């Protein structure tokens, strides 16, 4: 059961015959059952130690008669220890059964790439057969949970356009083999559109800001597609800075202020430090759950974004992150729907920003589960943020972004919200607004909590206007450009209604023009009609 | 970009899409939707009013308070439904379908045909008995929220056919 995997002597990339059924790494059932196994082992060990101590302590067993079931269990175990032959037989049988089930699971899980789709079969009693068409593949990730890291294995996660449930996990493969599989899948899935798209992106960067598929394809990038793993490292986020940035969070600051306040009040009322100490000790449990929740949240954030590295592969941004659970996310540039940067109030003294993106197929749930990485820069200086943004979308100009990040007023082609919005938004009514370039629409809001969102015209899904009763009285309207689900929200609150109507009309026609161009650029639709949901059959 | 599949009604001026104005030939939904929603409301709440009234007679006159409040609630709901249904209007423009809703909280959503992923036509038994159906337009974003409730069934089906054809002709990648 521990036969060596194909990891030694990796074959040349092109000969990685993925069209035949492949097995996962033989250790994968063990790893998948890892947590359960550890729990069971831990329980057994504790029982064993307990019994050992009880045995040493002699008559102590009679001291604890109130728990009947526990007693029964102990007697059962005691019986087993008394009859070591029976015990070993039971243990061997259980181990054998587990081994058999694991072996069967391994035997029946296999994957291949055939007829333009990735197929994955698993299950032995309940069979499952999942297929993801290669053209639907949005991103391919490698993830290494802690247990896998210890054993040198990785899982390959294939993300597709159908949302969370349509992800396909190949868990687990040897680390080197996972890299090969990922590379091969990327080449298979990306050979057509990624290469084609790269040229569009370059033409984009080349000047007029409008994507143009003028057929001058086969640029220098076409050959670079296979080399997805290389790429130029753009930046690293030092863990020390990430640590400070993570600690600087609304919750921690409120909690710290609360603790300080409580301390001062206590000091003022009691006067003596000893009594203050007792007071704090008494008050601590009240804050406990809150502090604990916050700590879990912050540590989770730190673990997720630790060791952050961003690399540019020409057609995709490659992100490596994670302190314990090392992950690699590849975001093809042409799948990015909207980009945004945020500066929480607490980061202002440092001038730090966070950059996030909306990516088609990477659903965003508020829980921030690590399966869905949409942060391309957890914390960085404005220069870094601008560099990342222009890398993700070469058509963006750094000067525009800078004025969006820091500026206010109408300089630089900005249309501000109505002056009547002053009553609803006294701080930032002179800053909030939008600017239109040939390629995209930029929105900036917030004076204390600065936000910038950018959405290319070609990515607009739909447009919406909304007006509540207060806004109605002031004749204001909120305009939203709807993107695919993600952390970036492109909406402008409290525009004058005439401006809003005009923006709706103009943006609709700009989006139409941009779509027409991108449509003529690629002869076949990049994303097939979703009238056909991703195939997934359960043969039960 | 109009298509030769089935040109949308001409004469509509896309310049005049406004949140409240009536410059365009906005179409309203079937009045049967009002009936359906009112029936649902009454079916849910009248039993409680009746129970409270019975309790008021049998147990204590104080239950009249509850019955009165509930009756007022029903009346308010009915008024709301009447107002809201009449506020739903929609229009097919050459390149997008626009739906407006709400009175106090007014909203407008404009969905380009090229962005339509699929269209659901649904109708429950009550809606079917009144011959109406609701049309839901799905783009790649679940937040688009384009629903057009209460179209006559055959009109909903025709609309779906038209829009699907136009969507196919104007489809754009993500």
Automatic annotation (TrEMBL), chain A:
Which UniProt key words apply to this protein?
A: Membrane, Transmembrane, Transmembrane helix
Q: Name one Pfam family in it.
A: bPH_2
Transmembrane keyword on record? yes
Q: Identify the residues that the record assigns to the YdbS-like PH domain, covering every copy.
A: 106-184, 308-361, 429-501
Residue spans making up a coiled coil are none
Give the domain of life.
Bacteria
What stretches pass through the bilayer?
85-106, 242-270, 276-296
Q: What name does UniProt use for this protein?
A: YdbS-like PH domain-containing protein
Q: Which organism is it from?
A: Knoellia aerolata DSM 18566
UniProtKB/TrEMBL annotation, chain B:
Span of domain YdbS-like PH: 95-162
The keyword Membrane appears for this protein = yes
Q: Where are the transmembrane segments?
A: 36-56, 62-82
Sorted keywords for this record are: Membrane, Transmembrane, Transmembrane helix
Q: State the InterPro entries in the record.
A: YdbS-like_PH
Top-rank taxon of the source lineage equals Bacteria
Q: What is this protein called?
A: Membrane protein
